[in-house]
Amino acid sequence: MDRQLEILCRTNGPLATDCYIIRDGEKAYLVDAPAPADRLIAMLDELSLSLEAVYLTHGHFDHVMAIPELRRRYPEMKLAICGADSRLLDRRICLEAMSRFGMPGDVDEFPPVDFLLEDGDETEFGYRVIRTGGHTPGSVCFYGEEDRILFTGDTLFRGSVGRCDLGGDEKELRSSLTRLLETIDDDVRILPGHGPMSSFGYERTHNPFLI
Asked: Which residues are CB-contacts of 65 (< 8 A; sequence separation ≥ 6)?
C-alpha cells in the first residue's frame, strides 16, 4: 500500500500502558486507548490529527478506558476489537477490574463496537490482524509486513509474555507464541502494550518463553 505512516508512542495510566498513535497524513489511528483520554486528545490536537479509529489488541481495562471520552470528542471514530473480547467493553467489568487492582476512578458506558476483528483481517492503516489468544480469549496482534512492525499488545513483551490468570489460557498462549515463531521474521520490530520496544530476533534468542 502506498502510504507513509508515522508511529508515535504515548505511555498512559497507572499501569504504564503503551498507546500507539499511527499518523497517516491528517488522519490518526490508535492501537489501544489507555486513560486518561485528555492526554491522548491533547497529543492529537497538537498534531492537528483527526482520529479515525481505535484498534484494540485486547479488552483489559487498562487498554480501553479512554474510549468513551474519545468517542465524545471524535463522534465519527470507529472502534474495533476481536469478538471474543468484545464483552469486556463493559463499564461494570472495567470497574470490577480496577477495584481488584486497588485503583479509584470511574468510566462511562462504552459505545458500540464498529468492527469485530477476525484473523487475517486488514486494518484501515493496512496492517494484518493475527489472532493470538491466551492473555485474553480475543487477544490479537497487528502486523505490518511492509513496515516490519508487529503490535503485540500484552501477548509478547521484551523478555516476557502476558499473564494468563486474568481470564486467559496458558495453553492457548503457548500456541499463539508458536505461531508467531513460525511466521514473524527476526527483523520485525515489536511494539508491545507495556515496556520498551524490541525485535522479534531478540525475543527469539533471549525471551525464555520463546526459547
From this structure: 13, 33, 34, 35, 37, 94, 105, 107
Give the single-character DSSP code of 136: S
Neighbours of 8 (CB within 10 A): 14
CA 60 to chain centre: 10
Measured in whole angstroms, the distance separating CA 65 from the mean position of its chain's CA atoms is: 12
pTM of the complete model: 0.97
- C-beta separation of 95 from 109 below 8 A: no
Reported in sequence order, the residue ranges of the chain that DSSP labels E, i.e. its strands, are 6-12, 17-24, 27-31, 50-55, 78-82, 115-117, 128-131, 140-144, 149-153, 156-157, 160-161, 189-192, 198-199
| Residue 75: burial class (beta carbons within 10 Å; 0-12, 13-18, 19+) | exposed
For the stretch 75-124, pLDDT in tens is 999 999 999 999 999 999 999 999 999 988 899 999 999 999 999 999 99
